[in-house]
Structures are given as C-alpha cells and as structure tokens.
Amino acid sequence: MPTYFINDGRHNQQRLYSLNDLELEIPIDLRPFIPANGRVYRNNKQKKKYLLEPVSKKWFDELRRRRDQHGAITRGERRDHAAERKTRLLGTSINKVDQRIDMGRDLTQYQAIYHNRMTPISTKLPTLQN
C-alpha cells in the first residue's frame, strides 16, 4: 500500500505513515471505506473539512459512520428492488402494491371463513332433503 503525508497539527510538520503499518489496527469491515489517498475528513456544521488523525477515535468514528451510511443506502436499494418485484408480480404500480396485497389477504380470509361455515351445511343438506 502507498505511503501518505499528513499534517501533524502540533508542530505543522509533515510526518509519514503507511497504511501497511496500520492494517493490523484497522478492522476488516472498515478498510473499504478508507479513501485511496488515505485521508479521512470530517465536516462540521459550517461545512469546513477537518483532517482526522489516522487510527484515532474520531477517525474510526468517521469510518464507522460511513459504513453505517453505506449500509442504510444498500438496505434502501434492496427495499426498492423488492417493491419493484412486487409491482411486476401483481401487475400494478408502486402506489397500489400495498392495497393489492391487502385485498388479496382479505379475500383469502373471507374464503376461509365461508368454507368453514358452509362445509358443515353442505354435508347436512342431502340428509335434510330426504
């Protein structure tokens, strides 16, 4: 892995670090969220970027925030794909999917109730006609 420069902040000196040296300390699930140049910035409310010290608590917090944000995006995309599959299956629009599913559930419940109540009557009918 490449070596990068970072501003120390204490003496404004440039000091060298390599991600190879840091890999043992970086959890595997956070490694994909480290930028190619190795610098991780955090924005504050005034939209100013602050360079975070590698392998510091804030640095890890920012990487975890990025991981969680990425997870939320992928969960949302999966939810959208599931909704699209349902619309294709039911032949309707996204706005009407829930209504169609509820109508199907109601019809199934009605048929089950009708069957449970009418079956005993239909079995007794031939004996009543004689």
In angstroms, what separates the terminal alpha carbons? 92 Å
- The number of helices is 3
Largest pleated sheet: 2 strands, antiparallel
Briefly note the structural class of the backbone.
Answer: alpha+beta
Number of strands: 4
Radius of gyration of CA atoms, rounded to a whole number: 31 Å
Instruction: Order the strands across the largest sheet as they lie in space.
Output: 1-2
Low-pLDDT runs: 1-8, 11-17
Task: Summarize model confidence as the mean pLDDT.
Answer: 77
Question: How many separate domains make up the residues?
Answer: 2
What string gives the helices and strands in order? EEHEEHH
Shape: rod-shaped
Measured by DSSP, the beta-strand proportion falls in 5-15%
Helix percent band: 40-55%
What do you see in this structure?
The protein has 130 residues and is α+β, with helices and mostly antiparallel strands. It is built from three helices and four strands; from the N terminus they run ββαββαα. The protein folds into two domains: 1-91, no CATH class; 93-130. Strands 1-2 form a two-stranded antiparallel ribbon. The chain has a two-stranded antiparallel ribbon with strand order 3-4. It has helices at 19-22, 57-90, 97-129; strands at residues 3-7, 14-18, 41-43, 49-51. The chain is rod-shaped and about 95 Å long. A hairpin with a 5-residue loop joins strand 3 (41-43) and strand 4.
